[in-house]
Amino acid sequence: MAPSLRGMLVIAAVAAVTIPLTAVGAVATPSQTAPGARAGVYEAHWLRSMVQADIFEIAAARLALARSQNATLRQAAESLVADHTTALQQKRALARSLRVLLPERTAAVQTMLLNQLNRTTDVAQFDQLFARVQIAAHQEAILMSAEAARAGIDGRLRTYAKTTVPVLKQHLQSFRALAQELGLPEGGKAPSTT
């Protein structure tokens, strides 16, 4: 049986909180950065996490464009591709200036979600799963970016993170509206198990 979306999101949240930054490669080693690197652990972790999120969003949106017939979803997916491609380029430039080596792939949980989306053959179920995944992903990205804007040490990172929050909130609002259109309860939130 495939893991549920809720189960995967819980695993991702627990892992994000409990796995030390060094275990996920957030601390740059001398071989990962140029001499005199200026990025701190926090900045490197945020950049790597958000780049993986951008890669995930682009891949998921392209899959949605190939699979969905829903005009609202397709329009939102087109916005995701455009906005997250731009954001990815900007984060790569920021990472170069901070001398942070970035991943080229999604995180494991994101890969699992992409696989689950890819395995979902019923179009209506695909649309619902896509909307739920996008809501969860954007909620997490908003929290991470707002925190980076508030607590980041590097001024460039704080400024950049602050500019991303309104775009992420716009995406979240679009997917909540889509979830309502698709008839998902509570704007696409996973149903409570209690």
What attributes characterize this protein structure?
194 residues, Ferritin, mainly alpha, single chain
Instruction: Describe the main β-sheet briefly.
Output: none
The pLDDT mean sits at 82
Low-confidence runs (pLDDT<50, min 5 residues)?
10-37
Gross morphology is: globular
The percent range for helix content is over 70%
Number of strands: 0
Examine the coordinates and then state which fold CATH places here, giving the name of the CATH topology: Ferritin
Instruction: Give the CATH superfamily.
Output: Ferritin, core subunit, four-helix bundle
Helix and strand content put the structural class at mainly alpha
CATH class: Mainly Alpha
The gyration radius over C-alpha positions equals: 17 Å
Distance between the termini: 22 Å
- Along the chain, the helix and strand elements come as HHHHHH
Number of domains: 1
CATH architecture label:
Up-down Bundle
Q: Which band does the percent of strand residues land in?
A: under 5%
Number of helices: 6
